[in-house]
Amino acid sequence: MSRIIQILIKNHVFFLFILLECFSLKIFISNNFVAESSLSKKMTKISAQFFNKEKKIHEYFYLREKHDSLLIANERLFKKNLILTQKLENNNMRIDKVEDLNSLFMMQTKIVRNSWNKKQNFMTIEAGEKDSIKSNMGIVNSDNSLVGITYTTTDHFSTVISLINTDLMISAKIKNLGHYGSLMWDGKNPNTMQLHDIPKHAKVEIGDTIVTSGYSNILPANINIGVITKYKPERNTNFLNISIDLFTDFTNIQSAYVVNPMWKFEREIIEKKLKK
After folding, report:
1. What is the pLDDT of residues 34-65, one digit of tens each?
2. What is the rounded distance in angstroms from the CA atom of residue 139 to the CA atom of residue 106?
3. CATH number of the domain encompassing residue 183
4. Which residue range is the domain that position 268 belongs to?
5. Which ranges of the chain does DSSP label H, i.e. alpha helix?
6. Measured between alpha carbons, how far is residue 137 from residues 19, 50, 129 in Å?
7. What backbone phi and psi angles, to 5 degrees, belong to 172?
């Protein structure tokens, strides 16, 4: 212990210099958007590579479980394809709705890092700018249930703002009613979120499905989110406070799909004209 103290005293100028350098660097980055953005991308890349190696070691010991999961997901996709084919053959689906199904950019990716026990939870996926991934793209699982939205990107990796992040707000609606509001997480239970701004006169029922509204230019409409488990009137307002049980289990998620409307850029152009 005395030896350590002697070293600190002997080299106190050097350590003070390092401390001041770190402090000045922090001030510089916090007041410089370009530097902060550049550092964020570099840190994303470094941490993603580290957690990717860790993920590969973990995956090696769970190959059988992952194989069974892929078989189940493939079976679901096959069933969905069969149902759509039957509807088309029976002329029960409008042509424009079929085009909506095909007007999505979709890519499967691995989740190499995931947090669910914090207030601001993030994921890292093994797909980046070289895979045509950009910020503000939707992330869903194999059941077409919402997972989050892409945040920062590098060549081969992207970070994702998890649905269970207190900073994220999603426009969502009650599927069978059409009433829409703001979906947010209170930072408590990773399986439950809260839907606000639904009027009291809405005929809400326990078990109603909640989906994305499609009103934002980030997420397509009708992506599954969860079901209503309870609701109550908010004090001094004309709205309900609704609790949603999420479809996605954020404590056990291995892969996901990146989705993005192909007509997003065209919509952005026409909506910018309204702001002028």
Report:
1. 545 665 677 777 777 777 777 777 666 666 66
2. 9
3. 2.40.10.350
4. 58-161+254-275
5. 2-10, 12-30, 33-60, 63-89, 95-102, 264-275
6. 39, 24, 12
7. -135, 160
